[in-house]
Design a protein that fits this description.
The chain is an all-alpha fold. It is built from 4 helices and no strands.
Length: 177
Amino acid sequence: MTLLGAVPAWCWWLIAMVLVAGGQQYRVVIADGSAAAARTETAKAGKALSDYRLQAAERDRRAAVQARTEERRRQAEADEEGENARQKLELAQDRAAAAESAASGLHGEIKRLRDGHRATCDTIAAQQRKTGTSAVVVLGGLLEDADRMAGSCAAALERSRIAGLACEAVVEGMKGP
């Protein structure tokens, strides 16, 4: 008999079952190792993702702080320019009031001269005045009108200039350093 014949058939079946079970066990051990490696990689990726999220949040926070700082700087600069413009406008208004006061004095002087001229002319040459209004009276009226118009134009131009300069300064401030 041969060696194969000496071993009963059920043993062969048992050997085959042990070999198949051992192979399956080997596959399970390899799969468990692969799963453990995958879990380790997943944990590393999760930590990397968490770190990235923290970095992104920190970057966003810094950007927001920087944007708020820049906005505050620009607003402060705009407020400062607005205050400067307001002060300049007040100064221009004070100057306009002083000029108007001086103009009122000149108007009074012109009126006094006109009245004096009328009184003189009335007593000396009443018949010569019948032909028309005296040149002094006409010129005085024209001077008053021209002075009034020049004063209002100068005040409007000064306000416009100050507002324009303030706008330019604010725009330059918005451009940043």
